[in-house]
Amino acid sequence: MFAIRAAVLILVVLLQVPSGHADERPSMQSVEAFLQKSVEKGSVAGGVLLVYHRGEPILEAPFGFADLEAGKPYKMDTPVIIASISKPLIGTILFRMQEAGKLNLDAPITEYLPEFADPQMKSGEPSPRPPKVGELLTHTSGFRSDYEDGGRIWFQDWTKERPLSEVVAGVAKNIPLNRVPGTKYAYSGIGTDVAARIGEVVSGERRNAFLQSELAEPLQMDHTFYFAKTRVDALPEGMPIRYYRGSRSGKLLRYKKRLPLDDEFYSSSGGTVVSTAEDLGRWLLMLRSRGILPDGSRYLSAASMDAMLHPAPLGYNAAGGLFIRRKNDQGVPVLYAHTGSSGTNVWIDFEQDVIGIMLTQTRASDIKPFRIELQDRVTKAVASEYLEPAVSK
C-alpha cells in the first residue's frame, strides 16, 4: 500500500511541473518548439528570433504570421518597425559624431540649438541650466516623460507634416522642462527628438539621411531606415500587420494601418526605425567587438565604446541609451538590452557571449510574459548546449 501511495504521489508531482521544463533539457530545439506553441496559443502573432553565440549565428527561427488573416508567414528578412530600439541607434550615431569632432556630448544643447536658450521649468521658474546633449540619450534631460500628459508629441496634430526642425523648435517654445536637468530619470522620446535634431545640425543632413550615412551604410545595414514613404513603398512584400490583444475578446486584433509619411516630415525619432534581425545583428556584433567591423576596420574607437557602454550617473541606461539589465559581482554591466512597444527585444550578454534579437509586431505589453520567458529559455539553452561540459555516457 505504501508503494502505491508513493507512486501516486510522484505522478502528481510530475504532473504539476510545467511542461517544457520537466521533460526536456534546455536546447535551441526546445526554444523553437516554444515559439510554435506560443503562436498556436495565440500568445503572439509571429516574428523572428536570431541568436548569436561567440559572434556566430546559432539559431535563425521565423515563427508565426506577418498577416494572420492571410496566413502570410514571417521570414528572417521581414522588416519591422523596431519602435524604441531606435533610441540606442541614435545614441550610437551621436557617439560616432562626437568621435569625429562634430559635437560634444557633455556640452549644453544650446551650443547646437540656440532656440533652447533660457529654458523654463514647468513651475514657471527658469531652469538652473539647459540639458546636456548626453542627458538626452539617458533620459535625464528633464524633458517630459512619454508617460506624462502630452509626452508623446508624435501623436499630436501640431507635429503633423512638419520637418523635425520645426517640431523641435515647437518643443523649445511650448514645452517646459518637468525636472531640473541631470537630477531625475524620466523616459522621454522628446529627448530623443532633440538629440536627432542636434544630429541634423552638426551633420548638415536630415535625420533620415544621417541614419544612413552614419550607421546603416558603414555597418551594411541595408534594410534599416526611418518609416518614410519612399523606402516603405519600395518594399517588395510590404510591412507586417501590427496586432494588439483586445481587452474584451482576448483575441489578437489588427491595429489601424499607419501610412508612411513623406521623407521630409517628422515621425518619432526614437520610435519609427524599420529594420531586420540581420541588420540589428550587425549593429550588436559591432558592439560585441568593441567597435570593430568584420573587415577589421573601426566604426568606433575602444574609448568611445567604453564610454557608450558605461552606466549613466543615474537611471537605468548606459550612456549610449541601452538599458543595463545585469551587472556582475564586481558591479560591471554584463547584460544590455532594449525593447520596443511594437513587440521587439534585443540583448547582448557579455558573460555568455550571446546576442539575441526577437522581432514581432504584437504589442509589447501584450507579449511581455512571452518575451521574458523566451529570453530565459534562450539563456538556458545556450548554457546547456554550449557552456556546460558534455555528460559522458
From TrEMBL:
The secretion signal range is 1-22
Which species is listed as the source?
A: Roseimaritima multifibrata
Q: Which SUPFAM superfamilies match?
A: beta-lactamase/transpeptidase-like (SSF56601)
Please name the top-level EC class of this enzyme.
Answer: hydrolase
> What PANTHER family does this protein map onto?
BETA-LACTAMASE FAMILY PROTEIN (AFU_ORTHOLOGUE AFUA_5G07500), BETA-LACTAMASE-RELATED
UniProt GO MF annotations: hydrolase activity
Q: Where is the Beta-lactamase-related domain?
A: 32-365
List every stretch annotated Disordered. Answer: 119-140
In terms of InterPro entries, this protein maps to: Beta-lactam-related (IPR001466), Beta-lactam/transpept-like (IPR012338), Diverse_Enzym_Activities (IPR050789)
Q: What is this protein called?
A: Esterase EstB
- Tell me which Pfam families the record gives: Beta-lactamase
E.C. number(s) listed in UniProt: 3.1.1.-
Q: Which UniProt keywords apply?
A: Hydrolase, Signal
